[in-house]
Amino acid sequence: MENQGIGSWANRRRVKAAGKTAFIFNDVSTTYDEFYVQVNKLAHALRDAGVVRGTRVAYLGENHPSFLVTFLATTQLGAIFVPLNTRLAPAEVSYALDDSGASLLIHSGALAHLAVQGSAGMSLRLVQAEGEPHEAGVITLAEFTAEASTEFIDETVKHDDPALILYTSGTTGHPKGAVLTHGNFLWNTINALVDFDVTSREMSLMISPLFHVASLGMGALPMLIKGGTIVLEAGFDPGRALMLIEKYHITMLAGVPTTYQMMCEHPDWATTDLSSVHHMTCGGSAVPARVLNAYEERGLAFTLSYGMTESSPGASSMPPQYSRAKAGSSGLPHYFVDMRIRDEQNLESPVGEVGEIQLRGPNVIAEYWNKPEASRDSFVDGNWFKTGDMGYLDADGFLFVADRIKDMIISGGENIYPAEIEQIIFELEGVTGVALIGVPDDKWGEVPWAILTMAGGATVTLEEVRAHLDNRVARYKMPKNVIVVDEFPRTASGKIRKADLRKRFA
What we know:
By secondary structure, the protein is α/β, with parallel strands linked by helices. It has 3 domains: 6-182, Rossmann fold (3-Layer(aba) Sandwich); 185-404, ANL, N-terminal domain (Rossmann fold, 3-Layer(aba) Sandwich); 408-505, GMP Synthetase, Chain A, domain 3 (2-Layer Sandwich). It has 15 helices and 25 strands. The strands form 6 sheets. The chain has a 9-stranded mixed sheet, with helices on both faces. Strands 16, 17, 18, 19 and 20 form a 5-stranded antiparallel sheet that branches.
């Protein structure tokens, strides 16, 4: 076979997993045989529509089998998949479509209007993945592929060929399109298989959106390469997630701290059978101690992780047996990832001393789409990627993430890393969100303020926050003010826009 890329996976897996379920969506199962047919029919339809090697095909939609079908069909041709965040505004969709030069957009029925608005004035073709057409003349995916062949198209695709452009959420300016190759995803998948002990018997619940690289790279692709089963959910509801875990005997799931918090606080938590679950990954931020306790009481432990779009996304993961002994750590580098910590002069930082986290490995990107200067500036010493994150390694090589460089607060010449303080404040009863920001101060340059969101009816004072931090952090790290807001400004991927908060409270 000439195709060494992801687009060949359905063909490679179809006989090995004949008759086995690849996906379950809304209680409808799709076997690997059927998945193979769907991928090949779409690949032929795309080729007939002019999609060739290097063509960009965009996708805008919630979790649905058509997302993965489109991904594999596109890459089978050597073309490039461009998944779009469903929370983007029309102008942001327009930017991504224009910047990537997409020639075709496949979208869900629910986001038809966003697809139309975001592609206004562009000469690209729209295809609706599912649902009733929102207006006359709209072609559906079923119609688009109706007459297509089911034969595998064995296009020559190498590991270094681009497979996907994923736009990273930016807090200033336009996002950058990270170019992930077939090799990046393959090696990331191998890291996941090795470090997470994935088998073909897994039932993985996919409650996070596939347009995020964590769900795609650490969740879906390891299942597809091993022949496991993915239970796809268009969105997240804690009660429904618990029901699905019990119904389908889910073995693996991935989420963020808020996801797990909502599940363990749901009324059905205590009565749901979780005995099938053996692996839970969690990334994005630290897990509050009360959430860790709730899961440990049910015999469950998290695999905490660190990563980013540019590492496809796995950089490190925490073996569950160390979750208490190395509390606060994001674990050890993945099997085929090298990691180091460097100071402002790019010299090696001593053990336990905070510096910039730098990565290299076959899962790390080589470039951003159409941004050669940003690509050059992101690497040092040849192939070490500058993450822009601050952290340190302990004597055993475990990574502790401090914060983003741009979010670091400098007060009286002392560096304050917000994530350290935020994790402790999060332990307070009723606190549902924390953002520590630097506010200008005549004496100290800037001082930390804690911006919080609270559960309904809950309150907290500055004195209570400082008392909770007392003897746990240095005095200069304690917030000088506490402000409760209804909600945080967030990026399209859900990250808190600290720049907006700094501007608001400056």
